[in-house]
Amino acid sequence: MPAVRSTIVDLFGKTSQAKYVMANDVKFGGETFTFQNEWGDPCLITGTEQGGEYLQRIHAALKGR
After folding, report:
1. 46: Cα separation from own chain's centroid
2. C-alpha–C-alpha distance, residues 61 and 23, integer Å
3. What are the phi and psi torsion angles at 42 (to 5°)?
């Protein structure tokens, strides 16, 4: 998760979070994502096409590390 956090900051700048019982809202690059970490399986979920493109960029950057 530290690698994902640093990649997000490198690509999109500052992030913000709103914490809830079952998940967190994470905002970066003008998009809002749902972050869940149940059973040791963390994930970011988007509901927009732009958010999907951001997740693909994060994935590609992490593969390049």
Report:
1. 9
2. 25
3. -70, 145
Strand 31-38 to strand 24-28: parallel, antiparallel, or no bridges (unpaired)?
A: antiparallel
Q: Is 54 exposed, middle or buried (0-12, 13-18, 19+ CB in 10 A)?
A: buried
- Cβ atoms of 24 and 18 closer than 8 Å: yes
30 vs 12: CA distance, rounded Å: 9
| Tens-binned pLDDT, residue by residue, of the chain (65 aa) | 899 999 999 999 999 999 998 999 999 999 999 999 888 889 999 999 999 999 999 999 999 87
CB half-sphere exposure, 47, CA atoms < 13 A:
7
